[in-house]
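Protocol step 4 of 5: obtain the predicted structure for the target chain.
Materials: sequence only (see below). No template structures provided, no constraints applied. The aim of this step is simply to have a reference model before the mutagenesis design in step 5. Sequence pasted as it appears in the construct record:
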Amino acid sequence: MTADGPSVECSLTGVALRTHDEPYPFDYEPYAHQHRMADLVRDDEGFVAVNDSPTGGGKTASWLAPALTERLDTVAIYPTNALVVDQRAGIAEELDAVDHEVSLLTLTSEELAKRRSEYGVSENGKVIEQWYRAERRTGDQVILLTNPDIFVMMCRDMYRNPSREYANVAFAVVDEFHRAGRKEQNTLRYLLDELYERPDRQSRLDRIAFLSATPDAAQERQFERGMAAPYHRVTESSGDGVDTQPDRRAFTDSPADGWRSVMPPVDLDVRTAPTFGTADVLLEDDADDLRSFCAPAADAGEAVAVILDGVHEVRRVWEFLDAELDCRVERVDGFHSDRKASKLREFDVLVSNSAVEVGIDFDIDRLLFAAHDRGSFLQRLGRLRTSRRRSPARCYVPRSVAQSLATDDRITTADAVTRETLDAVLDDAYPSPREPHSFDWRYSAPEALEHLSERRDNAPPDRQEAITSRGRARIERQFLADADARVSREDIYRTTSEMDWRVLRALQWYRGDSVQALVYDRTTETVRSYDVFYLLRYGQVTFHDQATFEQSIPDSGQATFDRLKRYVDGFCTYDGTIQPTEEGWGRSVAFTGPSIAELLDVGTVNSDRRPRVLKKPKLSVTPSDGQPRVRTLDRLNDRLQRRRDRLGKEAGLLCYPLSIPATVARESYDLGKFFFLYPVALEGQEACLALGTDALYLHSLVMEDAERNDSDGLIGGVTRRE
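Step 4 output (structure tokens):
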């Protein structure tokens, strides 16, 4: 594969933030946004705040410092367990700033499994309750660090022994909020708003902070109009005539006094490569340049990061650099996450993907990365931070983006490009993905109504009316404010009443469904869960029944096996990757079987169908010439089809099928390459399907197109009743 587009070189300015010469719990002068957040917390009035300061700008300290000084029980919600663990270590180092006892509780599935054994109980809800109460008895403050899945399960009483310890926290912080999908953002925003509005005897929460990228206009409206608490952006000056200085400035050599660098000046080289094809360009066209770009890691002791998109890209580039360079070349991705902490401490060259894109701290001097969209460009570029020294960076972007940058005067004629200018240029250069605007009322509103129904039914009779009234008003302001004028409250209720109950149940979880296998990686002697589709496409895998698999794993993997065995859809051993085709493809994986055929038989056009729970999913795998077959696929399919026996009647696979090939669907609905569609293998039929939350997004897009051309006005697939 060749890079057939232009390249662009430019000089980026560094970013410095203004500091305040005033006392701060930690041993430095605070930034302006940290000062404003502390003022908000101390004022003891309810608020919802967004902190969109740049990467490396101290967003964690902005909430941690006032939470500690005010002794507020706090819950901090991070997108991944890895980030929970990483942030715990950083937060623990700051606790000496106060003289009272602070307990840090890391609520992850792995930690909860350890505590179940310690407390001799079988339910996570009971563990959380006992752990929190024990720490609260012996300490002065508790900070819960968790992921959104566990937080949502607590808020919705989804544990068999419900834990309501979340109701004791006064401060809630959501990190990397912009990285969540539309459904996930709606879920968190609604539940936090509900906790804020509950009476004090039911919830103490009155302070909410989102740590995020700069919100767009629609998100600003959601914060301002959709939530009950007053909204603040702490990176904006107060406008009171006192605090009106700019908080952020560009610099080319060094920041001025009273300013601290958070991003260095960068010599940026932008080149061309297709999404998921950067490794091909690096190893074929740019192999010499790749080697020389990373060589300072060996020659001058400079740390280098290479951040790509696909796991198979990471593997190929890592193998090349490991063979070519006389230094420590480490690989970290979702599948190769063993010894992550030590790898990030000790690498000379790091080859990775989105597994290190956010949050995890490590220092680098040089950066090479792929950027499939504007967000990934800015997020990955932000890995170069804090240093005042000019740093080199090389970025690979799609050809259309490179062409746009090469002809943009804001880039080509400037001696130095500010980060604000780069942001605006990228906004114009990258195509905006199509948003399923009707998703909010079509699915998030029914999700909230189902949750409201559960709350009402479980409340004392004298409180049910008040719960219902407040809940319906909250749903309308959050999910109807930006809806099409044709959509009314009655339409939402009717759509909800006609929705499959299994879909409504699936919506109560934070994330959409996925198909995971428990893997014994014999190349590293580690046990972890991973996506079945990657394993089937690229892995040398053998699937086993549960008992045989347990016998094959080392003792070090037993705890992981015990924790995940009920939830995974298969068990396999992994012996490395297969040889892909010249185009970089692995085996072809598709859905098949009578259950898929039954879903496709509904209706004559795609808009006639609705998302459904596939009760008995089945997969087929077709290797290309020379690639090995997966001879044990039947063992995976047998377990996959018995999902409901393990997890309950609603535990099929949420999906939405289209009677067109995946390539046509991507183009028709402007889905982009990171929207996952799976082919269907049925004789005489060309079809594809989306899974989990993606199924709901895709259905929303299909219905929007159908309704645009429908004079009778279908709402949620239900004919309007005038």
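Step 4 remarks: The chain has four domains: 8-13+250-429, 19-244, 439-497, 516-719. The radius of gyration is 26 Å.
Proceed to step 5.
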